[in-house]
Amino acid sequence: MRSDAIGALDPELSLLIDRLPKVELHVHLEGTLEPELAFRLALRNGIALPFASVEEMRAAYEFSDLQSFLNVYYAACAVLVAREDFRDLTRAYLARAHADGVRHVEPFFDPQTHTERGIPIADVIGGILDGLAEGEREYGITSGLILSFLRHLPVEAADAELAAAEPWLDRIVAVGLDSSEIGFPPEPFAGTFARARSLGLRTVAHAGEEADASLVARTIDALEVSRIDHGVRAADDPTVMRLLVEAGVTLTACPNSNVRLRVFPSMEGSTIRTLLDAGVAVTINSDDPAYFGGYIGDNYRGITAGLDLQAADLHRLAANAINGSFATAARKQELLAELALAIAG
What we know:
Blueprint: H1 11-19, E1 22-24, H2 35-45, H3 54-59, H4 66-76, H5 83-99, E2 102-105, E3 108-109, H6 111-115, H7 121-139, E4 142-143, E5 145-150, H8 155-164, E6 172-178, H9 190-198, E7 202-207, H10 213-223, E8 227-230, H11 238-247, E9 250-253, H12 255-260, H13 272-277, E10 281-284, H14 289-292, H15 296-307, H16 311-324, H17 329-344
Parallel strand pairs: 1-2, 2-4, 3-5, 5-6, 6-7, 7-8, 8-9, 9-10
């Protein structure tokens, strides 16, 4: 489901969005599981989905809040069983990303969602890395994988997953923290994140989507993150916005999911304009596009129409994503040069 405002988008801006070399910093691989692929994997693995058809499954993607979404999200993950499933999931996402002009992606994956079901972490990570490697060969999309912990599970479970992932840390760029914000503060995970940094990983965390701006500040303080995922509630507090600017923390905003989960009533109600005007390094991403009805291009179009963004705003959003990524300095320079050509037309 695309935003109704997309139809009002200026054609020249639409063409510019098509040209932009996009970097996606906030996408959950499990959240790219389209119903069609879910049914194919369910058949392959002998798993019964609680839906009679693809259409019925897609019709169920109406959510009242973050938790109602997560309930469906975790249930659908049951079809991901074997290494090839994770490879197929990753390749399917990269094909969609390529169509939207994505050049670099740093996807999240939630190993605990799978290891709790008895899936070996080697199959999870191995399959994703297979897909990323094939995507780079086929589409030229570079990547950096982010291992994300589920904040509703005990800290000890996060510590165990980090230890289990150590054989692949040369292929993982960062750790993250996601799932429900309310009632699950960041502070207990400070030790886990410190351990990750000692292993050479960067740190990012979800905050300021369903919880208020204070959680953004607390997360920066407790976890020493380079990026806040979502973070749109930071716009409610000028002090928190100043903190983001002064600390050089990037926000990975996801307009479609904010509207679908009723963080904002519409694109017009988004705080992304406020964040941009305050100098915050905000970026545009798709979050869980299979569930929220739009990949990164749809998110760019929706927020551009909803907030009447202009070419200079799009330039800033795309540049923020490049600069806020964990890509190599050389890769960033390549992408910034490509961006300059796109803006020049």
